Amino acid sequence: MSRPSRRHILALASGTVLGGLAGCFGDSDDGLYDSDETTGDADTGGDGASATRETAVDGPDESALEETDIPLADEQLPLEYPPETLREETISGGVPKDGIPSIDDPTFEGVDDVGNRLDDGDPVFGLVIDGDVRAYPQSVLVYHEIVNDDVGDESVAITYCPLTGTAMGFARNGVEFGVSGTLVNSNLVMYDREGDSRWPQILATAIDGPLEGASLEEIPVHWSTWGRWKAAYPETRVLTTDTGYARDYNSDPYGSYNPADGYYWEDSPTMFTPLSTDERLPNKRMVLGARPVDGPLAFDLERLADEGVLSSASVTDREETYLAIYDDRIGAGHLYRSDGDTYEYDGDTGTVVTADGTTYEPDELPLESVYAFDAMWFAWAGFYPSTALID
């Protein structure tokens, strides 16, 4: 039996007849990608796309940088495929540009107003900026994928790709992001409404448009559950279903996370062929992924929840050692650059204890924090085939 397409699923969910399909990206601009640097072998899995461990790409020209209002990262994030390859691998997601509408005027309510709209086990994406605490229910984001919001003193885009299980935040400085209608490696390709550059969410780097080669400024967003998040942050404000669009927010078109079923079941197949395959974990197993300069890393979240602390010390070809710490309060992981000292997890208190007996909350270790986010294994390994896996 053939699998239903994403277009078919979305059409069934929304009850609408979708318009013409969005095309893939146009031809690349010759010259923006100058060279690649192979620093290690990468298993490309035989899917046709070629990868190197690191691909150096020229950033946008100075005029594009001067004209943009989008906050950009100081350094380009690593890519393992040149933009030309990523553009060639970009496919229609079955909906036109903005066919999945972003939420541009979000409204929020307090915990007491949520009622039975959310079950304690339902996933939410949590964000804290300057004491302003927000929760974005997965049940709403699955229909919109992007919320252009203002939190604390920051203008941010909260983004979610249901096909790769990735929730990520980006600084936007008033510039709105939208859903392009295309995918690469099953991942949402965003576009900015300033200059229409194209940004695969996981890569956070433009692969086409005036800002090609630039990387976005990332903001940590945590996968959690409604029960854990509201217990940790009772003052949180929650995105409402008052979005201006008619959607059945009680029904996920892809399956269920509470309990895991359908597309979200970890052994289920992908909907589209990944850039690269890696069978070390089931397709949809969730990992905590990071891309430090000495190479991408992925920590098995299920094992992290069991152990409390995981170290990358077994990865011998890296300059640095990293520590992943489980935060039982919100059911998420934090990543740090290790200083060589010993850190042990106290399962009774959910805290971390150093060799001298000092105790820290999982998000307050006196170490350099490293940006990391949750992703389905197939998506992470597809974009970063050289990744080390700590499981």
User: Distance between termini?
Assistant: 34 Å
Biggest sheet: strand arrangement? 2-13-4-3-12
Which ranges are low-confidence, i.e. pLDDT below 50, for 5 or more consecutive residues? 1-48
Counting DSSP H or I runs of 4 or more residues, the number of helices is: 8
Count the E strands.
26
Q: Whole-number radius of gyration?
A: 20 Å
Instruction: Supply the helix-strand structural class.
Output: alpha+beta
- Envelope shape: globular
Helix proportion: 10-25%
Kindly report the average pLDDT value.
88
In what range is the share of β-strand residues?
25-35%
Question: Can you give a write-up of this model?
Answer:
The chain is an alpha+beta fold and 391 residues long. It has helices at residues 6-14, 62-67, 83-88, 111-114, 138-141, 226-232, 301-307, 377-383; strands spanning 91-92, 108-110, 123-129, 132-137, 146-151, 154-161, 166-171, 177-184, 187-192, 198-200, 218-219, 222-225, 237-239, 255-257, 260-262, 286-290, 297-300, 309-311, 322-327, 332-337, 343-346, 351-354, 359-360, 368-369, 373-376, 388-390. The strands form seven sheets. It has a five-stranded mixed beta sheet with strand order 2-13-4-3-12. Strands 1-8-9-10 form a four-stranded antiparallel beta sheet. A hairpin with a 4-residue loop joins strand 6 (154-161) and strand 7 (166-171). It is globular. Mean pLDDT is 88; it is low at 1-48.
